[in-house]
Amino acid sequence: MSEIKNIRDQFISKLENDLSIDQINEIKTDLFGKNGLISSKFKTIGSIPETDRKKFASNLNQVKDELQNLITSKINEIEGKKINEKLEKEKVDITLPERPFVRGKVHPVSQTIDEISSIFSEIGFSVEEGPDVENEYNNFTALNTPDNHPARDMHDTFYLDENKEVLLRTHTSPVQIRTMLKDKPPFKIIAPGRTYRSDSDQTHAPMFHQVEGLHIDTNINMGHLKGCLNYFIKEFFEVEKIKMRFRPSHFPFTEPSAEVDIGYEIKDGKIIIGEGDKWLEILGCGMVHPNVLRNVKVDPSKYQGYAFGIGIDRLAMLKYGINDLRAFFDCDYRWLNHFGFDPLDVPSNYRGLSR
Amino acid sequence: MKITYDWLKDHLKISAKEDKLLEKLTDIGLEVESIENLSEGLDLFRVAKIIKTEKHPNADRLKVCDVDVGNNEIKKVVCGAVNAREGLLTVYAPPGAIIPKNKTKLVVAKIRDVTSYGMLCSESELNLSDESDGITELSSSKYAKNIGKSYFSKPSSNLIDLSITPNRPDCLGVRGIARDLSAAGFGNLKPEKDKKIKSNKKQTLKVKITKEKNQGCLSFGSCLITNVKNTESPKWLKDKLISIGQKPISAIVDITNYVMIDINRPLHAYDADKIDKGIIVRNSKSGEEFTALDNKNYKLDDGMCVISDNKGVLGLGGIIGGTRSGTELDTKNVLLESAYFDPRSIRKTAKKLNIDTDAKFRFERGIDQLSIEVGLNKAAFLIKEICGGEISKIDIQKTESYKNKVIKFEPKTFEKITGFKISTKEMINILEKLGFKLKKEKKCFKLSVPSWRPDIVQEIDIVEELVRISGYEKIKIENPIKERSKNTLNPTQKLFHFLQRAVASKGYLEAITWSFTDSKYNDHFKEDNKEIKIVNPISSELGVLRNSIFSNLLMYMSKNLDRGIKDLSIFEIGPIFYGPQPGEQNIVVCGLSAGKKSRLSWVEKERNVDVFDIKRDVIQTLVEAGYNAEKFYIDDESPNYYHPGKSGRIFLNKGKDKVATYFGEIHPNIIKTLDIKTESLVGFEIFLDNLKLPKKSLKDQKTKYSVSDFQKSERDFAFIVDKKISAQDIVSVISNIDKNLISNIKVFDVYEGDNIPENQKSVAISVTIQSLEKTLTDNDLEKTNNLIIETVENKTGAKIRS
After folding, report:
1. How far apart are CA A329 and CA B677, in angstroms?
2. Could you give the CA distance from residue B572 to residue B688 in angstroms, rounded to a whole number?
3. In chain B, positions 538-577, which contact chain A (CB-CB < 8 Å)?
4. Does domain A108-339 have CATH number 3.40.50.450?
5. Residue A250: which of B166, B481, B501 has the nearest Cβ?
6. Which residues of A touch B482 (CB under 8 A)?
7. Is B480 a domain residue?
8. Fewer CB in 10 Å around end: N or C, chain B?
9. Range of the structural domain that residue B166 is part of
């Protein structure tokens, strides 16, 4: 009995010393190794008289647990101390810069195109495209703008040949022609893309972007046109109310034709869309001219509908407060960084167009 | 088209305020572009009398005048006019007044040390005439009592500038605008009150329109007015022209201009005595020449419509007259022309000769064919009234008679197109006020179109008239239905958007540059493509369509580097062109990366961007877009603008596809020639049109999920191999040995130099060996190991490094 107590006392006092991990492990072996003191005692349990055996075993287990716990806590203490010492040495200046990263941006025009597509997607339009180089027929004649018609003066055209048969499209309207020639009605498309006109000054660039819209069915009238654009403008500018004005105008390929103005005001040097008493022209539209439908073999007595053309760059300028059109194409990294969008900001219906 | 409310009132009975007028004009499609108050400040100009003149002490040609400006005020004014003399009545402008001609504001100024308080004005400075020799002389009988009073009688009304669309020539006349307004219920159109010429005198100058192909003149009306005295226009006429910003010239010219603006009827006045015998309207012959009223000499081609006499060309019909037969102040006999020219012929000629005149602008849009006589009557009577003389009968020569257009119109078409209703009564009212003559038939109207509306040819044109006049605000909003029957984007368009954002997410700024470029830049990148020239570029630096996006992108990269940024990645996604025909274009994603990685980093070693950076960007983009990197095949062939040793191309599949991308360092020669200042420049091009679209949609792309939890073993090999053998070759050999057992093949070291024979290299490769079915025994592993070594050695001539 006292032997066990002796072992206990002896080792507890040993463990009170300042020990290394190795020394503790040695003690562990001395006690609990194959022939360790405690291990050996357990082997003797069988030879203890029955009457004392229970008590002996109980005592032995108690001492074993006590010593084991002490050893474990001793080891933890030393290891903990070691880690603490290490932590003390390993302190870094966490305000030093992180490893370098670079951030790309999507051009505001691309972002705007995605926003526009997202809005029109919701009301059933799909996206069509056409080539930048067009023939004279698709760009003008098929759109009811014959040669030697003053309406052609409205477009300063880049030509690729002396006969003026091949040109850079002056608007996205030829996509109407291509789409209608390719398929059968009904049509419900938008066509964003590059367009070209040969003037260049502060407010005009020789290349700019337009989005064409076309909706042809048996019963589409000017009310639908108004409704569609009203919806688009509200969604695009992310405002509840919009002041919109339809004004009679003339385009050879639509009749009746309209230009659409939106109301705005300038507050603290910033443009506020949808309020105020100033008007800003943002798009042209109208009912597709029967001559155009005839040119693409669609029967105007059965089908009718509307078309519109919107300047994308202009919309982007208004929405994002960009003053200078020319800067869109100047490729200054500071401008691209400032006005560009994070590639993860994909405009979508469920998440909203912009953050 | 410039008008004033006052002039409109000549034709329109109306009392509404001007702001209501402006609103109405825009509402009916006659857009108000701007408003200008020409009379602002004109009340400052006063009638004044020169009391005394003295020679300027410091300038021989200047005089110092004491001027009585009324209210017992005498002002000292320095004046250089020869006719400045004592007793002269003239126009005085005080400091603060703005001179109409050059818009300068007068201030008290010292002129050669003498202070001048204001200015005495010439007629030219007041925009009254071209007379700039000397100051205005006012007749003392008329103005003696007016000293100190405002010279300009009453403030003229605002100048309203309208943007008239090309389909509305009728609104290039004040009366046409008035008619439109009256149809919209804004005032009542006053009836025309012009008298008709009743004369016994014959028009003695013979007029002949030759019969020939493409004769541009369909009808030529004329009237001879003899014994006139051309003079300055009366004040009412001058005021009228001045009110819309025009300058009076002489009565005869002013009258023709007035009639043109008033009723959109261009006229031309000839000095009849300068015409040799008679007028011949004919096609020009190549080489003919004449000097026009703009003082330019024009050389004509074949087939331009000219007005000529026996001596030659007098003018271009409907475009511009010539100096030889122009009227002057001493003109005694006037031949007035009122003709109709074919719009297409006018446009063709004017375009070819690059002439733009008021008459041309009107004729090319279409003039009222029935206004020939009205115009002659109106002008001839005015000339007689102002210049005296005798009017002859009107002579009209024609090659073609005007045919009245008739259109069938069904009232229900209106609602079908516009979505709202107006009553038949209202339709009739609008159309009649616009000048249509209506005949009711069973279900429709037969409409006779007024001669001044060449734009109206079919039923839809009638709908436009009705909706325009009744007001676009009446169109009801039909809200769109949120329904989709077709995908918004097709797979190619989805790929476009995906690539755009995938590349941007790798640190590239998206640029949009012109589709055209400088041929100097383009030459470096066009390879075997033909140069596609723009016939009329805005500048020679933008003279060709780009064969590659690199041309523009490199130029802008260079500009940005010059701005002081050192490390920059930019890209553009857009068209490049390989031919001049529609459709001969491809979509390319093109990127450039310049400078260093980790420049000035405390934690990482800085290094130049290199070909493997750009390769990572490209491969990662393709993998993200859904392409399987294990199938990619890469070789070192690339266009000349890349560094020949540090560039390559990627195919999505070996042997079957078009090139998916090129990537590599930009050729040092190009960097040198274009003077691009950077440590390193790498680029890539992804050809969107060459990327085969995944056959399956994303939802079907996921294959069965199977992984192995049996023990895996990683083994490393080092092969000594000929330098020409590519890493890709060795990896491909190993991957084809047993796809079920061997995966994760990675080249982790390449070494040339000491201990390696010349022209050889050591390639270290790590592979994972793992079975899907069982734990591999040492024996199994050894077998696979040996198989790898054996196969690589056999197929590539490599030797395992012991």
Report:
1. 22
2. 12
3. 538, 542, 545, 556, 559-560, 563, 565, 567-570, 574-575, 577
4. no
5. B166
6. 122-124
7. no
8. C
9. 2-38+157-189
